[in-house]
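Example record

Each entry pairs one chain with its bound ligand, LZUJQKHR.
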Amino acid sequence: MTRIIMHGCNGKMGQVISGIVANDPETSIVAGIDISDHMDNPYPVYTRIEDLDVDGDVIIDFSIASAVPTVLNYAKSRKIPLVLCTTGLTEEQIATVNEASKEIAILLSANMSLGVNLLLNLVKKAAKTLTGANFDIEIVEKHHNQKIDAPSGTALAFADSINESLNHEYTYNYDRSTSRVKREGQEIGIHAVRGGTIVGDHAIIFAGQDEVVELHHSALSKDIFAVGAVNAAKFLSQKCQGMYDMQNVIENY
Ligand SMILES: NC(=O)C1=CN([C@@H]2O[C@H](COP(=O)(O)OP(=O)(O)OC[C@H]3O[C@@H](n4cnc5c(N)ncnc54)[C@H](OP(=O)(O)O)[C@@H]3O)[C@@H](O)[C@H]2O)C=CC1
Ligand SMILES: O=C(O)C1=N[C@H](C(=O)O)C[C@H](O)C1
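Structure tokens for the complex follow.
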């Protein structure tokens, strides 16, 4: 049995994970942490992680970037593996996460779904072949109107994955409205749409001379992220210090 501490338990993802765990005999949530305390949960909920007095095997975090330093410090001080799913972290925060992984196991992933993690590999092959023929790369992501960070962590992960396959020679362009110049060849345009209840939609567009190739992922429910996070928690609870990602988890799917 993997004992989970759920950080951000009363948020949208925290509640979906509570539902998945309730039907999974291999996991249980032993405690939740959330600043808003308006939900009925079948486990104790704390508003401050420092007040936690139960043991857990792993922490899952779906909260807000500004709360990440606190959960990271707690995980480090108690030597508890941390599945970090919150997006919108600053470069400085990511550096702190990397530093902490010298002491504890951390799995950092902007998207816990199988489909996106498969696509993160497929875009590399497409980028290598198509940029060789001068195709331009644009990423368009769409999310619900409650999302606060933009562009999405997943859009950035796609850009980073593509750029890695292109020797990091591309720059990212988030805004064409302030310049009056033609598109640079070695850039990746990244664009965010926000509206309604869109769960999460990512299109990676390769546009060339007279043809367009588009790779696309659509999340139809938040369950795909929750199932991935619970699988990641089971995986990580057995690991020693180090940085992990969802590629390590989907290898076992
Ligand atoms: N990696 C992945 O696959 C996915 C990542 N995400 C990311 O996960 C994060 C959460 O998403 P979602 O559940 O939709 O967001 P929500 O806003 O619904 O949930 C976040 C929860 O964290 C709470 N919270 C805010 N500050 C703190 C704090 N200091 N300590 C503890 N809890 C706090 C919020 O309370 P309050 O509402 O009062 O602010 C809220 O209940 C986002 O960054 C999102 O981008 C989302 C889906 C998939
Ligand atoms: O906030 C969300 O909802 C999501 N956020 C993640 C991101 O920023 O990429 C993943 C998913 O698309 C849903």
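The CA atoms of residues 172 and 188 lie 5 Å apart.
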